[in-house]
């Protein structure tokens, strides 16, 4: 079977062969436990981990001791948010986040609400960005944490992180960011950005799945989180469990490659993305979702009105993309991120996310354009809504028989 | 989720796509679903002598299974009498297309569309509408 063109790099990225190469010895001859202090097997593994920690730190502008390795961004989000809530509960119980966060943040906050946290979920503007004045108005003396994502996984918009950090700090709160989609794609500097805690993961930057990190600031201020797992006290007591040495080495290598190649990659990918987007926007009744100035270089999210996303994806089976439509009997709810931009349900159902990546070529984009155009036209031929639109019928005036 | 071959076939080569004149007395039109739910199905029948369905057309906004369900429904409708058409059950569609459980509601929609088209035809021709049992969604 011919492989489809992979344009779902926000879901996960392929492993870079150079990363794999760096990892391989740590599965075999360098198999030691990094915590084994009294023989060479342990030392070799520990060296690998130490070097990876340096590579990671260098990418985000922190020191090695500020990196806590985890099983991924979900765990890092949990550790950061729950850990701060427990550690700082003397000071207050208020957390501020946004409605467009990943479930790893939203559901963690929901969990804490049951433990006595008060959580404010900020809405976003039509372009997906938060309103800084709204954030400021939500801050209280009890606010201990502001957790707002860096770049959004569905629409790619980049929040004004520095301004958010400044507001949080002015009110004495910590600023955490889920930077899963941003780290390795755009310059992220925890000092310049004023970040106190930051979650990210290897498998969105050409590293392996199942490994990520939480950055925890050690100076100005010194931030502490309570551990969420009991055990051997690894990672300075904040995350127990024998270190996933090959994974960590892979994360380190992935960070190094991103650091070296990010700048040229961002230019290349945003040019490809812009071509994809501007060509597809020429299709009648297609709309680009999210702010187009402040956003990641590799994401485009487009709604093709009057066709349904899942059906559209089926017509594009040579293309691996994702849709904001979730029309299954389990959930008729389309993407909550798109809905929070104020998109009507039918436009949210009609959306496709294209996530470009390191291995995306110009030919891939040309083909993606051709495949999408053909699919949209095919489905509009089949769409009763398109026919009504063309006849000038106002669809909002029809009384739909909801099922 | 992988689609069955039959779904893919109907999806790629939908049968009977199109529009019949909805003003005609011989045509019954069913429009079910809602754009907000991500699925809208329009199914039309043309009824000839002896209550036999001589033509059927559809257009669907929805997932592949919804498109395939309505395409299949139009195939089955042609040549049937109205009474026969009323016996088409959504589970027949599920079986024929090998729809997985999460896609059963797509077939329900097709059954609803058939019944609603028949009712439209009946009402137009002075017959009373058949009371539709609310199908299992
Ligand atoms: C913004 C964001 N946060 C968290 C995650 C979860 O990351 P992981 O798969 O490493 O747990 C993802 C990936 O799906 C993401 O896009
Ligand atoms: S029409 Fe909703 S999933 Fe098929």
UniProtKB/TrEMBL annotation, chain A:
Catalytic residues identified in the record: 327
Cofactor: pyridoxal 5'-phosphate
Alphabetized InterPro entries for the sequence: Aminotrans_V_dom, Aminotrans_V_PyrdxlP_BS, Cys_deSase_IscS, Cysteine_dSase, PyrdxlP-dep_Trfase, PyrdxlP-dep_Trfase_major, PyrdxlP-dep_Trfase_small
Keyword tags: 2Fe-2S, Cytoplasm, Iron, Iron-sulfur, Metal-binding, Pyridoxal phosphate, Transferase
Keyword Flavoprotein: no
One Gene Ontology MF term: pyridoxal phosphate binding
Gene Ontology biological-process annotations: [2Fe-2S] cluster assembly
GO CC terms: L-cysteine desulfurase complex
Catalytic activity line of the entry: (sulfur carrier)-H + L-cysteine = (sulfur carrier)-SH + L-alanine
Protein's UniProt keywords contain Protease: no
EC number(s) given by UniProt: 2.8.1.7
Residues modified as N6-(pyridoxal phosphate)lysine: 204
Cell location: Cytoplasm
Residues the entry annotates as binding pyridoxal 5'-phosphate: 73-74, 153, 181, 201-203, 242
Class of this enzyme: transferase
Record: residues binding [2Fe-2S] cluster: 327
Pfam family, one: Aminotran_5
Domain Aminotransferase class V: 5-367
Domain of life: Bacteria
The protein's annotated pathway: Cofactor biosynthesis; iron-sulfur cluster biosynthesis
Subunit structure: Homodimer. Forms a heterotetramer with IscU, interacts with other sulfur acceptors.
Role this protein plays: Master enzyme that delivers sulfur to a number of partners involved in Fe-S cluster assembly, tRNA modification or cofactor biosynthesis. Catalyzes the removal of elemental sulfur atoms from cysteine to produce alanine. Functions as a sulfur delivery protein for Fe-S cluster synthesis onto IscU, an Fe-S scaffold assembly protein, as well as other S acceptor proteins.
Sequence similarity: Belongs to the class-V pyridoxal-phosphate-dependent aminotransferase family. NifS/IscS subfamily.
NCBIfam families from the UniProt entry: PRK02948.1 (NF002806), PRK14012.1 (NF010611)
Name of the molecule in the record: Cysteine desulfurase IscS
Protein's organism: Pedobacter jejuensis
From TrEMBL, chain B:
Keywords, in A-Z order: Iron, Metal-binding
Highest taxon of source: Bacteria
Entries under Pfam families matching the protein: NifU_N (PF01592)
Gene3D superfamilies recorded: 3.90.1010.10
BP GO annotations: iron-sulfur cluster assembly
Residue span(s) of domain NIF system FeS cluster assembly NifU N-terminal: 2-125
GO molecular function: iron ion binding; iron-sulfur cluster binding
InterPro entries with a match to the protein in the record: ISCU, NIF_FeS_clus_asmbl_NifU_N
Function per UniProt: A scaffold on which IscS assembles Fe-S clusters. It is likely that Fe-S cluster coordination is flexible as the role of this complex is to build and then hand off Fe-S clusters.
Family: Belongs to the NifU family.
PANTHER family per record: IRON-SULFUR CLUSTER ASSEMBLY ENZYME NIFU HOMOLOG
Entry protein name: Iron-sulfur cluster assembly scaffold protein IscU
Source organism of this protein record: Pedobacter jejuensis
């Amino acid at each position: 079977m011919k492989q489809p063109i992979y344009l779902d790099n926000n879901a996960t990225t392929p492993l870079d062969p150079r990363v794999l190469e760096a990892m391989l010895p740590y599965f075999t001859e360098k198999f030691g436990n990094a915590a084994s202090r009294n023989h060479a097997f342990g030392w070799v593994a520990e060296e690998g981990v130490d070097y990876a920690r340096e590579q990671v730190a260098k990418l985000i502008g922190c020191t090695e001791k500020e990196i806590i390795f985890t099983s991924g961004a979900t765990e890092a989000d949990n550790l950061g948010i729950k850990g701060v809530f427990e550690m700082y509960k003397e000071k207050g119980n208020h957390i501020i986040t946004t409605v467009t966060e990943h479930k790893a943040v939203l559901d963690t906050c929901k969990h804490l609400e049951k433990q006595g946290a008060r959580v404010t979920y900020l809405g976003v503007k039509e372009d997906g960005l938060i309103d800084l004045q709204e954030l400021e108005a939500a801050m209280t003396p009890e606010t201990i944490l502001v957790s707002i994502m860096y770049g959004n996984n569905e629409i790619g918009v980049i929040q004004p992180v520095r301004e958010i950090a400044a507001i949080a700090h002015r009110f004495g709160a910590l600023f955490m960011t889920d930077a899963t989609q941003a780290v390795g794609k755009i310059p992220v500097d925890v000092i310049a950005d004023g970040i106190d805690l930051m979650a990210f993961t290897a498998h969105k930057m050409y590293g392996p799945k199942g490994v990520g990190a939480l950055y925890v600031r050690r100076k100005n201020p010194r931030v502490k989180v309570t551990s969420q797992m009991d055990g051997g006290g690894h990672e300075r007591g904040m995350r127990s469990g024998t270190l996933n040495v090959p994974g960590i080495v892979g994360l380190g290598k992935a960070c190094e490659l991103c650091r070296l190649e990010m700048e040229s990659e961002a230019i290349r990918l945003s040019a490809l993305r812009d071509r994809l987007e501007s060509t597809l926007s020429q299709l009648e009744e297609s709309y680009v979702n999210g702010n187009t100035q402040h956003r990641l270089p590799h994401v485009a999210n487009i709604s093709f009105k009057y066709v349904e996303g899942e059906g559209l994806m089926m017509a594009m089976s040579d293309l691996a993309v994702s849709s904001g439509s979730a029309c299954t009997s389990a959930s008729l709810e389309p993407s909550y991120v798109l809905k929070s931009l104020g998109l009507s349900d039918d436009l949210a159902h009609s959306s496709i996310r294209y996530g470009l990546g390191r291995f995306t070529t110009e030919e891939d984009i040309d083909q993606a354009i051709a495949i999408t155009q053909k699919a949209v036209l095919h489905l509009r031929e089949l769409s009763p809504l398109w026919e009504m639109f063309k006849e000038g019928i106002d669809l909002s005036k029809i009384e739909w028989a909801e099922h | 989720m992988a689609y069955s071959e039959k779904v893919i076939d109907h999806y790629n080569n939908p049968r009977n796509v199109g529009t019949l004149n909805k003003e005609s007395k011989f045509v019954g039109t069913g429009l079910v679903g809602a754009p907000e739910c991500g699925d809208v199905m329009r199914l039309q029948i043309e009824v000839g002598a002896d209550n036999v369905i001589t033509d059927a057309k559809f257009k669907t906004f929805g997932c592949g299974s919804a498109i395939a369900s309505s395409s299949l429904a139009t195939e089955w409708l042609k040549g049937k009498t109205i009474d026969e058409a009323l016996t088409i059950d959504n589970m027949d569609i599920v079986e024929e297309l090998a729809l997985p459980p999460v896609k059963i509601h797509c077939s329900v929609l097709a059954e609803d569309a058939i019944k609603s088209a028949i009712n439209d035809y009946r009402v137009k021709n002075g017959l009373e509408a058949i009371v539709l049992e609310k199908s299992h969604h």
